Amino acid sequence: MNIVVVGTGYVGLVTGVALAHIGHRVTCVDVDKEKVERMRQGISPIYEPGIEPLMKENMEANRLFFTTDGASAYQEADVIYIAVGTPENEDGFADLTYLKQAVRDIASAVTKDVIVVTKSTVPVGTNHEIQRMFKQLVPHVHIDVVSNPEFLREGSAIHDTFHGDRIVIGADDERAAAVVADIHRPFGIPIFHTDIRSAEMIKYASNAFLATKISFINEIANICEKVGADVEQVAAGMGMDQRIGSSFLRAGIGYGGSCFPKDTKALAKIAANIDHDFELLKAVIEVNNKQQRKLIEKAKKRFGHLAGKKIALLGLSFKPNTDDMREAASLVVARELLAEQATVVAYDPIAMGKVAHVLPKEVIYASSVEEALQDADAAMILTEWDEFRQLDLSVYVNEMKTPIIFDGRNCYALHDVARYPIEYYSIGRKPITNIK
Q1: pLDDT value, residue 10
Q2: What SS3 state is found at 8?
Q3: Which of 371, 344, 372 lies closest to 359, judged by CA?
């Protein structure tokens, strides 16, 4: 198949690379000339483990190409994947500006029948709207629209593409659905056929359910702290029930990133637009917003006030193995610490190049864990990077003014911390106060 992928963000680039790797000829289109030039050199614009070797391998095999000339690419395509961003509007609804522009660009260039596959996350009914746009813009060309939502985890996107649970294909035309199914068959992943609107809803419903599990276990963690239970033991016991499962039952300071916050709010907005009050999902969102401030509450309870305190922030990206800062807890924590007149020193193994324009200008950046911790009154762990999880706890004792840790990701076993003169406050577990 001669495939074109529009957009080279997390979804588009991973999709293009993966489809090339299973044997298709793939051209990735982006309007950013500098970005395209870097990709032609095998340099990924996103931090995603394993993606650059696959890019280079498939470029060398003449299966993967990058261009800004979308018009020429569309004319030769058998199938076009749209993977542009659908960011959140101020009202919580998905912004379809980039998607509709991609539709217009495709319509202005195609000269033969083609299948357009929507990878972008879109509100229910959007793919039918795209179909209507194509009929109006290019009535002489037959264009089938297929919904093929993605279920990738940033930081694990390559693995998820080749080892996913299912591939969802939503289509009104059986022939178009069969073509898209054939494209994906080499992945060896179960393919689920459904109608277009159900496919659109599967994406939102899946993310909303996972977000619900996260907010639920965080509420359980907050109760555990008050009754003296251990949330990790509780989650382990719950997860052994096959009806519940162990995934997404890890207590912490909430979810972030490009999907869960945006998709939960968008689904709540979709419900509101049809006069349905999605009370459960609104509660999930509210719980998450509160949970991101949990370490601030713990620190203020411990110190009384944070004015003049030097606080080390360990981890800035919303999760490990990505440099994505969208909806990261660090954005909230840094702002609130500064509002409390604390000094904030931050370090992240990967995201440092992405933080200057999103974090307050008063934040000081360190080049290592040790530098961030030096003479700090407290440390807050916001991202569970392996560098932090594997850090010898003696580093906190040796570098900090007072080795007080507020761990928002439960990186350390309590019995390990108990061996050191450290104060340790985590989520849903008893505190350890070994400082004399």
Answers
A1: 92
A2: coil
A3: 344
250 is in an annotated binding site: yes
Phi/psi of residue 354, nearest 5 degrees = -110, 0
User: Is 63 annotated for ligand binding?
Assistant: no
Strand partners of residue 3: 26, 79
Helix locations, 304-417, DSSP H: 329-339, 352-355, 369-373, 386-389, 394-399, 414-417
Q: Model confidence over 215-251: pLDDT tens digits?
A: 999 999 999 999 999 999 999 999 999 999 999 999 9
Contacts by residues 133-138 (CB-CB < 8 Å, ≥ 24 positions apart): 133/100, 133/103, 133/104, 133/107, 134/103, 134/106, 134/107, 137/103, 137/104, 137/107, 137/108, 138/107, 138/110
Element holding 260 (H helix, E strand): helix 260-273
Is 185 annotated as belonging to a binding site? no
Return the structure tokens found at 30: 């982006």
Distance CA 382, CA 328 (A): 9
Residue 436 pLDDT > 70: no
Which one, of 206, 194, 109, lies nearest residue 147 by Cα? 194
Q: What is the DSSP string of 188-200?
A: ---EEEE-HHHHH
Catalytic residue (choose from 28, 224, 259, 411): 259
Please indicate whether residue 259 is annotated as part of the active site: yes
Q: Does residue 267 sit in helix, strand or coil?
A: helix
Tokens describing residue 189: 């992943």
Q: Is 66 annotated as a binding residue?
A: no
- pTM assigned to the model: 0.94
Q: Is 121 annotated as a binding residue?
A: yes
- Sole residue written with tokens 């500006």: 97
Closest CA to 191 of 208, 169, 159: 169
Element (H, E) at 102: helix 97-109
Q: How far apart are CA 129 and CA 349, in angstroms?
A: 42
Residue 319 labelled as part of a binding site: yes
